[in-house]
Amino acid sequence: MSKILVCLKRVIDYNVRVRVKPDNTGVITDGVKMSINPFDEIALEEALRIKEKGGATEVVVVSIGPADTQQQLRTGLAMGADRAILVQSDAPVEPLAAARAFLKLIEKESPSIVLMGKQGIDDDNAQTGQMVAALWNRPQATFASKIELDGGKAKVTREVDAGLETIEVDLPAVFTSDLRLNEPRYVKLPEIMKAKKKPLDTVSFGDLGVAPANAFKNVKFEAPTGRTKGIMVKDVAELVTALKQKGVL
After folding, report:
1. Residues 52 and 28: beta-carbon distance below 8 Å
2. Which of 109, 117, 123, 224 has the most CB atoms less than 10 A away?
3. Nearest CA to 25 among 92, 121, 93, 124?
4. CA 90 to chain centre
5. pLDDT value at 1 more than 60
6. Res 138 pLDDT > 60
7. Which range marks the domain in which residue 222 is found?
8. Which pLDDT score, from 0 to 100, does residue 34 have?
9. CA 86, CA 67: separation in Å to the nearest integer?
10. Residue 191: what are its φ and ψ, rounded to 5°?
11. Which percentage of the chain shows pLDDT scores above 90?
12. Mean pLDDT of 14-31
């Protein structure tokens, strides 16, 4: 095994309260803290651990987004990735277009493993990993909570509705990380300084020969309806009565 490709997405930090623009055309991002998608950060941590165990010689982080996405890629380099690639795009990119761009990078880099988070915390599509595997015509192991490599195969424990499922796939393959796969490392200042000297290449969709066409159009954004105040009940009978009054029962 020689190389692991890790896909990172730039999202609003999970600690920040998301606010909708007054004209309902999107969410406010100006002046808002942006971070690596938490599930992608877990994917990168797993790639670094595989490399540290001798399972890979290089970890490459890639992302799609505006020029400011370099900040998140530099964070990935500070965590321990060897180099980074940014597919620069100022417009939002849907999962299929992202998968096609990643496929072009995969064909160029020839990784043994492609790792990414199971979903982005902004749109929650959970589609890109599966689409990459389908376009690449390679096995996929999604929602992974444990990855064990053995030569040209990998045994992956997946989190599914019924509990846990363990499958074995041939490499190369696509893995998407679940929350319990690991806990990402803390990035220290010396690593942040070293990351500034690591290579970060920028390409465009045109350079990859991919058209970033979107099939969907966002018509309107709305904030969730505020929760109503709860009430205290003395016993089950009073609870049933309250539920009937609300039309639930």
Report:
1. no
2. 117
3. 92
4. 18
5. no
6. yes
7. 3-245
8. 92
9. 8
10. -70, -35
11. 69
12. 88
Average pLDDT, the chain: 92
The CATH number covering residue 76 comes to 3.40.50.620
How many domains, in total, are found in the chain?
1
**How far apart are the C-alpha atoms of 242 and 147, rounded to whole Å?**
48
User: Containing H/E element for 243?
Assistant: helix 236-245
| 110-120 CB burial, b ≥16 within 10 A, e <16 | ebbbbbbbbbb
Q: How far apart are CA 221 and CA 212, in angstroms?
A: 22
Please give the sequence-ordered ranges of beta strands (E in DSSP) within 51-183, or none if there are none: 58-65, 83-88, 113-117, 140-150, 153-160, 163-170, 173-177
| Under 8 Å between Cβ of 138 and 173 | yes
Residue 97: count of CB within 10 angstroms of its CB: 23
* pLDDT tens track for 146-201: 999 998 899 999 998 888 999 999 999 999 999 999 999 999 899 999 999 999 99
Q: In this structure, are strands 200-204 and 83-88 parallel, antiparallel, or unpaired?
A: parallel
| Phi, psi (deg, nearest 5) at residue 125 | -70, -40
In the numeric block, which tokens belong to residue 168?
Answer: 């074995």
Residue type at 83 in one-letter notation = R
Ramachandran category for residue 236: left, alpha or beta (phi over 0 → left; psi -120 to 50 → alpha): alpha
